[in-house]
Amino acid sequence: MKRILVIGSAGQIGSELTLEIRKIWGNENVIASDVCSNPSQKLQESGPYESLNILDRPRMEEIVRHYAIDGIVNLAAILSANGEKNPLKAWDVNMNGLINVLECAREHKMSQVLTPSSIAAFGPGTPLNNTPQETVLRPTTMYGVTKVAGELLGNYYVQKFGLDVRGLRYPGIISNETLPGGGTTDYAVAIYYDAVKYGKYTCFVREDTMLPMMYMPDCLKATLDLMQADFSKLKHHGDFNVAAMSFTVKEQADSIRKYIPGFEVTYEPDYRQAIADSWPRSIDDSAAREEWGWKPAYDLDAMTQDMLKVLKAKHAKGLI
Ligand code: NAD
Ligand code: SER
Fold this sequence. Notes:
Blueprint: E1 4-7, H1 14-25, E2 30-34, H2 41-45, E3 49-51, H3 57-67, E4 71-74, H4 80-85, H5 87-107, E5 112-114, E6 117-118, H6 142-161, E7 165-166, E8 168-170, E9 172-174, H7 187-198, E10 200-203, E11 210-215, H8 216-228, E12 240-241, E13 245-248, H9 249-257, E14 264-267, H10 272-277, H11 286-292, H12 300-316
Parallel strand pairs: 1-2, 1-4, 2-3, 4-5, 5-7, 6-8, 8-12, 9-11, 10-14
Antiparallel strand pairs: 11-13
Helix pairs in contact: 1-8, 5-6, 7-9, 7-12
């Protein structure tokens, strides 16, 4: 790829991934875009930035022609918790947005499209532990429905049109740069912020809730590694399981207490408990390991140590 358009670049993952893609492909060759009105200064100052609603196909076309784009990273999405508040919007952005991306890429004979899936593609009936790559995909959220359909659509464009489409089933991503955008795994980020700011946290899922999670440096590495993998060696395309760690909220709180001893957590489960309960506890990512060498670096304690160090420094400067 020579020129990449990142759509949804101002979100939790895009605000960091876009900067990493720029380091590899060059600042001027990576065009950040989003519908949001206040993208970070880093995003706007480190390279080109364009306002783009993924549902606006003519505007997408204009940007693709103007910059001679030959690859798209599609991060625009409505996540699980917000998706349950507005399911039709989740369908519209996640599916019609993806169709716009795939059609634009097909018409312009682009080199690659990367569009992430999620552990939300799984649902009741999927094995909960060490969930296999090939398994039952019957999600109960609209977000999950769009992720399964998105995987199938990506694989269809590979088979039917020979388009290079790649994607990973990200677990819950934990980071300290941009807050998550309305998902079920948001608690695993909020717990660190509230530990640093208030020494206590009220969690919206039960303490025994266990989900697969990943620290942002591993998420960036997984994404960049898959983007640069040899397409001819991939047996899977839009649906790679990727894992790093799994823990309960209680285990995460205990990890935080090693550095903030008096940290307290109370539990007030809401509608997001049912979503969490429908997702796997741990993931088998051997296909990603075999096909493109995936290997995570961070476990729970290493992540906790780093998250608290960064957030304490931000808190001391009044940034959070
Ligand atoms: P996010 O909600 O933080 O960011 C999404 C971005 O898309 C936002 O900046 C938003 O403004 C933008 N957006 C929304 N509607 C748009 C539209 N109509 N046109 C253009 N942009 C629009 O999400 P994220 O966490 O950065 O997720 C990125 C991708 O990774 C998504 O496909 C998501 O499903 C997937 N994913 C994320 C996680 C996670 O834990 N963060 C886990 C699994 C999968
Ligand atoms: N973090 C995402 C969510 O909770 C998982 O895809 O919606």
